[in-house]
Amino acid sequence: MKVEVWSDVVCPWCWIGKRHLEAALERFEHADEVEVVWRAFELDPSAVSAPAGGSPEDRPSYAARLAAKYGTDLAAAQQMIDTMVARGAEVGIDLRFDRAVAASTVDAHRVIHFAEQRGGPALQDVMKERLLRAYFTEGEAVGDHDVLVRLAEEVGMDAQDVREVLEAGTFLTQVRAEECEAAALGATGVPFFVVDRRYGVAGAQPAEALLEVLETAWSERPQLVSVIPAAGPDAACGPDGCAL
């Protein structure tokens, strides 16, 4: 069974939703038969990346950026931040919005694609987690190529290969295709979970809700129906040899 998750590495609810999915899978009886694939979604395609380095005092606060985006005041924006920090803490996530550096995430998504190509869903998941922690906890500039190369190298990828991918624009077509697909599926925000292309779940729903969807989708999977082959039941091979 495949679970596809559209999300962004600068989306706090996406990290929280990732933890909820992991908790649901821990309780799912068939978790070893589930493949989780991360899909690209840019919360702000027009975002401009701030350079690595510099002081937080030299850039707008996250609260100011949030207030501008939603057309609210700083007090209301800070309340949103406080809520997200509290929810993150509940699942073991340290959200440090005071360190967050504005970033375009298209290149981060390309690196996540490269990780999947090189190491499958397992390495892709590790890369995704590393980028989320880098942005939200460590204050890394995840739109900066040097930072992306370093973070990818930390999870076992070859630095030169990653740099070549970034400079060549590799995987940009795949990222754009996934963003278009998200729109076609009706995703207007993230995280957006799609289970076996049958069920869509919007938002960082509780682990219990995600578990219920997983169990429902599993129970509705087509079952193999065995029939007696025309040659008869004995015309087959097994671990002990072939029947004569």
Which helices and strands appear, and what pairs or packs with what?
Elements: E1 2-7, H1 12-27, E2 35-40, H2 62-70, H3 74-90, H4 106-136, H5 145-154, H6 159-168, H7 172-184, E3 192-195, E4 199-202, H8 207-219, E5 237-238, E6 241-242
Parallel strand pairs: 1-2
Antiparallel strand pairs: 1-3, 3-4, 5-6
Helix pairs in contact: 1-8, 2-3, 4-5, 5-6
Description:
- It is a single chain.
- With 244 residues, this protein is α+β, with helices and mostly antiparallel strands.
- Helices cover 49% and strands 10% of the residues.
- It has eight helices and six strands; from the N terminus they run βαβααααααββαββ.
- It has helices spanning 12-27, 62-70, 74-90, 106-136, 145-154, 159-168, 172-184, 207-219, and strands at 2-7, 35-40, 192-195, 199-202, 237-238, 241-242.
- The strands form two sheets. It has a four-stranded mixed beta sheet, sandwiched between helices.
- Helix 2 (62-70) packs across helix 3 (74-90), helix 4 crosses helix 5 (145-154) and helix 5 (145-154) packs antiparallel against helix 6 (159-168).
- The model has no long low-confidence stretch (mean pLDDT 92).
